[in-house]
User: Fold these one by one.
Assistant:
Number 1:
Amino acid sequence: APSAATASPPPPPAEPPRTLARRAFRDRVQMLKRHKWLALAVFLVTFGAFAAYAFLAPPTYEAYSVLLLQPNRAAGSASDVAAALQELPGEQAGKVLNQALILQQAPQIAERTAQTLLDQPGAEALEVVQEAAAAFGPQVTAEALGEYLQTEIVEVAPEGDQIDAIRVQAESGDPQEAALIASIYTDQYLALSRQSGRSSLSETRALLEGQLMTREGELAEIEAQMEAFMTAENAAGLEIQTQNTVSQIGQLESQLDLARVEVQQREATLAQLERESQTVGSRLEQSATSSSTTVQDTQTSEEIARLETLLSQAFVRNPELRNNPNAHPDTRAIYQRIQALRAEQRRLAQERAQGAVASGGLDMSSLGSNGPAYVAELQRRIADERSALQGARARVSALAGRLSAARGELREKPAQEVELAQLRRRRAAAEEAAMTIQRQLDQTSIAEETELAAAQVIRPVTVPRKPAAPQKPLLLGLGALLGLLLGLAAAAARYTTDSRAHTPEEVQAAGFAVIGQIPDLSAQLKRGRQSVEGVQVHPGLVTVTDAYSREAETFRHLHAALHAGGAAPQVVLATAPASGTGTSLVAANLAAAAAQAGRRVLLLDADLRTPAVGALFGLGDTPALGEGEDGQNVVYWSTVVPGLFALTARETPEVPGEAWAPERIGALLGELRGTFDLIVLDTPAALRTADAAHLAPHADAALLIAESGETDLDTMQRVARELSAAGLSRIGAVLNRADVSFAPTPRRTTLQREASARPALTA
């Protein structure tokens, strides 16, 4: 690594946290100041994109309904529903998800909704029909439209985590159309659930109708027998005791018939539960299949999203392919792959919906009543029914015993009275049984006619008044925030990857000792050439034209830094990696500052291609002091600064490198060392010519001039390595046109203010 032009100072003490924080703050300010236009451009582009979408994107309206689910409600009237509404929320979360899945994916509901839409007057003008026609062809069928509704328009999801409700939502560019689709979809689901709820009531009603017909036939037969007996036997009233016995037998027979009916109902219920228990295994398999298809559907959706992103990027690069993706083989392959994945997604959705319907809502991964608790509940109900059936059979056996005893007592009565009492008892028993069955049949018929769906609409569909998207305030806020973050990120990235020299800290981090910082002299350069002792000098010679300025002091600091910490170099080589960094101006001001300090200084213009020393000091306005010896192509000049002399080439050589042959330059500098205290070599750009490398072995130190914001640190290191290879070990850096906005401005004393009013420094 290049070494400093001065001896290494002792290690500095550890910096306090406040200093580190202040330095970090300045670093952030430098980043923003340096790359503010990049950050602003990124912010405007990002914010403009969000604003364009917010104001130019077509509005989308959302209409929805909210359904309160009652998955375990038994069939019944509205009072049953009111009682079911008192159940604690959140207990049926698993079935809420299953109902949402069925609503979203069931083909029946979607196709019925699509058919209803197609039956509407002017269905061709509906936006959803036109979009489906663009996707599936001009002839839109109910199946195709239903598929489009499921995948693009209708969304069904749980309304919340703590309530047993689902939300049916439809999107459209027309608010009336969005409300129409959501309303029809909701109605079709309610109709389908009501139809499935009636199936269990129909079986009970058919059983009761058969029992009622049997009892009515028995009653008619008994009435005919009684009429025939009374006519044939001319029977009169029976004894009180006989009547009581017969009445008791009648009651027992009636109770026995009802008990037998209960046994039949219990047996039917038990058989139904056992059949359901036998199908649990297959339904669980369907549930597992549905879960696996859910994972496949998620993977398919991710692949579709990735391919659509690639297709969108291709459209951005090639806008002409947006309306015809088949025109290019790459976009055609991506487009066909997306269509195939969407078809696979629809197939998986239908399989998942069919699996959810076939499993009856069972899900072994659920913690609710549709998981393992359902199997346990089913087994408990089977056990309860078996216990109740045994109890009913026991009652039948007990009633049969009591009836047998009562009949034994009746056998002791006269045959005529017994026969008449039996007929009356049979009639009463048949009437009571028929009335009981009729009441049950009436209740079942009413429940079947008034059967409600498994859900209730608690929030009907309304026509939206405001579009749901795009949300302009939200988009503008997000655009501003994202633009700010991206702008800062871009500035930070550019700041991190920028290899140019901007601050002394960056130059030091590259391995250089910063000898001085020179501010920007643009303001002085605008004033034009200044007259000093009748000589027109360059305005950039601030040590001569404005000796008390802060800019002039920076060159005096540079001169002082060359003498700090050890033996001062006598021959200083000034160079830079590239042209235009102000090397000649820095060398001239440094030489003037050294001469003003009382030293005898020579400024040697070693740039034979574009010499600048003569123009800086106006050497053409005064005669030369003399020329060198024969064979030395040099001319000596005095300058307006006392103690400062200049040396330039008498004529431009045919080959510039010949002037710096080792024996010539060595002899010349050997003579000059005995005459001058300080010799400053102004050399051309080190990467443009080899002059600096030729002169390096004869110099004591080198000043590498870097222009703030322009000079690349890598090129500086390259030049330093080249000079080190030539034998020059003391190399320091000077940051020209540095930003000294954070540096304190020294107060001007009265003497300085008076001096600034006087003419510039004279010889």
Note: The mean pLDDT is 80.
Number 2:
Amino acid sequence: MLIEILFDILSDFSLLYFYVSIILSIFCAYQITHFSLFNIKKMNECYTREHHSIQARQIPLVSVVGEVIEKRDWLTNKTKRIEAPDDDAEIHSFSLVNKRTIKRGGQQWKNILYSLSLKNIALP
């Protein structure tokens, strides 16, 4: 008789145990997932802050390196100009050779540099 009562009670509660176990497993899975996502979000924020602080610390270094490179380039150009031989005696490739003289433009140039139709118009 005692066994029959226990069997009846357990058979009636078996579905209840099943539903309660499903609800508890869903609740535990949610808590574990929530805890994991919270930790991932916190680690991501820490990584982002660290990355931004590293970038902010590197900004002055980049500008200093740029200034050093500009000074080095300026010094290199100056020394190369001093070392370079004077080439004033050579005829440059952009010179115009006339039968009588070499004309390089400027005040020596006598030809009209604009269209004759624009001769009376004041050019800006």
Note: Residues 1-80 form one domain.
Number 3:
Amino acid sequence: MISIFYQERELANILKTFQTNRSSGFLYLDAEVNFQNKKKSRVLVLQNGQIVYGDIILPTNKKNAQTQGQKLNREWSESAIALTT
């Protein structure tokens, strides 16, 4: 895993570099917000330079299949969930 430390307003340039290079992988962010004095952690999933997922944590395969089944089509969701276990 590579760690990159960045200053204010540099994150956009870092994301642009990942987009230009068509990078794929996980990007874990820990941001210190000055006025709150606490860290905020997020994870982004990149595929070919595009952000395809972002949240506080990555869901498990089972949780992801359940969520997709609820939002798209319940008929296949049980089969997908069975494949993740």
Note: The first strand starts at residue 25 and ends at 33.
Number 4:
Amino acid sequence: MDTSLNREQILDLDKRYRIALINSLSGVRTAFIGITGEHEQWNATTLSNITHVGAHPGQLSVLFRPQSTNSHTLKNYRNFGIMTLICMPFHKCDTVHEVSVKAPKDVFELELLDEPVQ
């Protein structure tokens, strides 16, 4: 079945349905949690826009949302220059979603969720 929606129809959709629709357009993708920081300034976030760029040398691109005043991940990455990407298994999908909580700057999201950090 083919379905076409114009701009007005998309904007008229229930907000949660519209978000789910837009998020599913690129298909199933691997979910990552990105961890960056140091010296008690750790931060974790959900990253779903990771793209393989090259294999030799290994290269990935990470697309961040537009920066807001509350975005600690991009600020930490720019300050410290390194990020750990953790590919999350499907059974941890709740953790992947919840790690995007708007935590205060000095709170590490995985500790807030009582997730072990190894």
Note: The radius of gyration is 17 Å.
